[in-house]
Amino acid sequence: MSQMSSGAMPPPRYVIAPAPRKPPVSVPRVEESPPPSEPSSEKLAYSLQGAAERLDVSLSTLRRAIDAGEIRSTKLGRRRIIPAQALEDFLAPKPN
């Protein structure tokens, strides 16, 4: 190893430059969709209470219609749900 003389320059110090900044990314704005005309039309299925409210009948009237086979329903675990299409079918005019 060589010894440094008193007049010799110290070894250079390395400076780490910060990483170059990336330009900001422009995110396109997502336009909000207009509210649906009928919020309940987007549901796929209803609870018994929700279906009774939509049909404007009592819960017991709805249960009688389900028991009579007039309205189709499905068990989902312990819950019974009514597909929205089943309500539409029930309300559709029936041939005489």
Biggest sheet layout: 3 strands, antiparallel
Beta-strand share of residues:
5-15%
Give the rounded overall mean pLDDT. Answer: 83
Can you give the helix content as a percent range? 25-40%
N-to-C series of helices and strands? EHHEEH
Structural class: alpha+beta
Total number of beta strands: 3
**Oligomer, anyone?**
single chain
Protein name: Helix-turn-helix domain-containing protein
Region (Disordered): 1-44
Organism: Aporhodopirellula aestuarii
Pfam families: HTH_17 (PF12728)
What does this protein look like?
The chain is rod-shaped, with a radius of gyration of 36 Å. The longest helix has 9 residues, at 59-67. The chain has a domain at 47-91. Strands 1-3-2 form a 3-stranded antiparallel β-sheet. Helices cover 26% and strands 11% of the residues. With 96 residues, the chain is of the alpha+beta class. α1 packs across α2.
Task: Spell out the key features of this protein.
96 residues; alpha+beta; 3 helices; rod-shaped; Helix-turn-helix domain-containing protein
Tell me the layout of helices and strands.
Layout: E1 45-47, H1 48-55, H2 59-67, E2 74-76, E3 79-83, H3 84-91
Antiparallel strand pairs: 1-3, 2-3
